[in-house]
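Lab notebook: predicted structure, single chain.

Context: the supervisor wants predicted structures on file for every construct in the current expression panel, including those that have not yet been purified. This is the next one on the list. No modifications to the sequence; it matches the entry in the shared construct table.
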Amino acid sequence: MTYAPARLYEEIAYIAYHFHWPREDLLDLTHRERGQWVREIARINARVNEGG
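Prediction complete. Output recorded below exactly as produced.
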């Protein structure tokens, strides 16, 4: 199964921006794993932005 390259780049850029992981490591993750990391980063960002 494949999905839009734009979505793949978005997920990779988001994780790389926050965690500075190498591109190759991010490409080795499954879509599901990347999605889990994206959600967790978003949760952390929301908590930080709320002052907690």
